[in-house]
Records
---
Amino acid sequence: MASEVSPSPPVSSIWSSKPWWCQPWSILLTGVAVPAASWCLLQRWWITAPLTTAVLLWWWLFLVVVPSAWRTEQAEVGEP
């Protein structure tokens, strides 16, 4: 006799399944704090500029690409 596992209810947002440190507000806050701290402490544009570029890429990946892919996957799973 095989026990059936009921599917988990659909999650309305990718963010509801993430911990506090992976929420949009924490990603944005950290992304602003890192270049600001770099500039305030070092005042070297050649260090702050690559950090800022990395943060922008990080934001694009985690705030644009991942949620978009998640929505696409959820739409595909919802289709019969």
---
Amino acid sequence: MSHSATEIAVGGVVLSAALAFGFYAIQTTGMTSGGAQAYDLHASFRSIEGVSIGTDVRLAGVKVGSVRDVSLNTETYRADTTVTIREGIEIPDDSAIAIASEGLLGGNFVEISPGGSPFYFQPGDEIYDTQGSVSLISLLLKFVSGGDE
């Protein structure tokens, strides 16, 4: 079979575009080739509205991990969450974790507010100081109704 130079060139362009898209997807989702080390921390929230698996975990505005697992605890009716933190990032064991918003139209992310303890969370530890997400709709309804509900 004979292939024209045009077919080979178009094939090369398509292959290059696919590789570029794959590289972009890996960079933006935080996926790695498996060489990066990380550790898990657990937290239980009253509400994690707007947070799902893969949501960024940030410290001082810098992405340091992501949400790895979310499940409903049927005994406490709270959202049990597992976050994965990059190896080398030490979180003081009196730190707080909260669901934060990027703005009125932005998405939610998980924010870690570091404490001042000289001791650090170990892999598998639980962060007890949590703050769930605040529903913008419920805040607006309270404001409009003028009630203290």
---
Amino acid sequence: MLPNYLTVLVYLIVGIVIGGALLAVGFLLGPKRSNPTKAQPYECGFEPFEDARMKFEVRYYLVAILFILFDLEITFLFPWAVALGRIGWPGFSAMMLFLLVLIVGFFYEWGKGGLEWE
């Protein structure tokens, strides 16, 4: 059973070693000049008017989640379109069901006013 997972284990170890080495080199060779201006949060070129840890509205998170959801939908559509000739009608109907669920969710969110930004 070990030979089946040996390549995954080697890949994981190599990835951890390379990642750790790059972080260590950046930490050791990177500049360490700090001043209070660099520590301030940057807000479009003017002085910050509130604390950087202020709370955001829930709408911001809803719009972000919707963006990620529809972005991932597109990533599922590309491989499906490439393999459509091989998967036939069952694959086509499964994707149409997937898109129907997403469209129903989109219209639900639209009806609830989740896409309104005031």
---
Amino acid sequence: MSDLAVPSNYLPILIFIGVAIAFFTVVMFLGQFVRPNRPYRAKMAPYESGSPLFQDAHVQFPMRYYIVAMLFVIFDIEIVFMFPWAVAFSKLGLVGLVEMVVFIAILVVGFWYAWMKGALEWD
């Protein structure tokens, strides 16, 4: 058997992927012919939250908005790392506890730094 030969265990997966791609293609093309297509002016107008547009869509957001969003994502993702630790807490023992205390200390230092720099102020 050569290195490039596909093992027989992968054959059902390849068949499944092929059927999924074929089904997707058939449904998309069939949908274009079956669905109604009657565009009119109001249907083609831009729509945002039920209110009509009152200015150009290319509005600059303040940089503080992005900083707060990035801080939220960073701290949110770091909090997610605590769930596996909580599940395996009894198996980790003292070493796991010390590692989590160091991890939380790093989070607190980062939070304190962001707070002192004023990144959490929304003015």
